[in-house]
Amino acid sequence: MLSRFAAFLAAGLALLGRYGTQGFALSIFLGLALPQFSAAARPLLPITIFCFTTVVFLRADFSIIAGLIRRPGKLIVTCLWLILGPAVLIGGAFLLVGRAALDPGLILGLAIMGAAPPIMSSPAVAILYGFEPSLIIAGVVVTTVLSPLVAPVVVELLAGAAVPLDRWALTLRLVLFVGGGMVVAAILRHWLGAARIRAMKANLDGFGVLMYFIFAIAAMDGVTRTAMANPGQVMLFLAIAFSVSAAGLLLTVLALRMFRRSERFMIGYGTGQRNMGLLVAALGAGVPQTTFLYFALAQFPIYLLPWLLRGIAGKIKRAETPADVG
After folding, report:
1. Torsion angle of alpha carbons 208, 118, 302, 264, nearest 10°?
2. Helix axes 310-325, 122-129, angle to 10 degrees
């Protein structure tokens, strides 16, 4: 009976995995459409983040990272940009607008966005577009590993005195999230073996879709209610989130001209799409409601831009193919 249930579950996850991109896009709208479940699902947010982290390290090909480390120049530039680019972008916006003009919860939300590592689905988006994913995979893994040391410092610098923050508590929680995910992934890699993990691709993709669905419902807690009560605030936060994503992509494409266009595009994608959930989960119940609202609305670019940018990505892919073939 147990083996039959396991086979049924594996088949269901594989089916979800085959419709991964559609599932990601649908998840966020289902989260909005099911507000009655959002509050109940919100405590599951840290669990989904831990699962994402574990699966990324489980599926990471560390031989790729080792190869890039042997010629580290490009990887160092990528990681420095992925860490410093968003922080400089958001810090510059704070200097231009002035923190006093902004809600403290929004300040913390933007600080979290600037400090978080790139979104973990960036390599999957690169593969979806047909780009060579090695550099963005390595960049995401390295910056995620460094995030317990880097992110709390950057959050504190960006948020300033307007938002009191216990940097050491945040560091400890991030160590538990990232380090714990690495340990669990290492145990699973030893138990399953690389060949079996590769064979489970569709199942792991489906598990990712399931986690994204739960994550989306949990992240949308209060969004529908706020949209009805204060649509102006929701539209403003959405505009800011899309603007930061677009600015990160554009700034990267213009600045990193020594890289191939597909590499610049994906580094820019990671610059604008940040794993805010990792820091929100680490902060726990101390996250102000306005900060959580901005975090929730910042998921819209993450879920929608892979679809919105597919035309540009296709042009880059077609432009690079002849050079690669030749």
Report:
1. -120
2. 60
- Residue 43 tokens, joined: 């405590």
Q: Where are the beta strands (DSSP E) in 149-237?
A: none
Cβ contact 78:135 at 8 Å: yes
Ranges in the chain, pLDDT < 50: 2, 5-6, 323-326
Contact partners, residue 237, CB within 8 Å, separation at least 6 = 106, 109, 293, 294, 297, 298
CA neighbor of 277 nearest in space, from 262, 294, 289, 260 = 294
Which pair of structure tokens corresponds to residue 22? 């559609």
Number of residues that this document lists for the chain: 326
Measuring CA to CA, which residue among 119, 115, 118, 178 is closest to residue 151? 115
What pLDDT sits at residue 324? 47
DSSP symbol at 120: T
Q: Can you state the angle between helices 231-255 and 299-308, rounded to 10 degrees?
A: 50
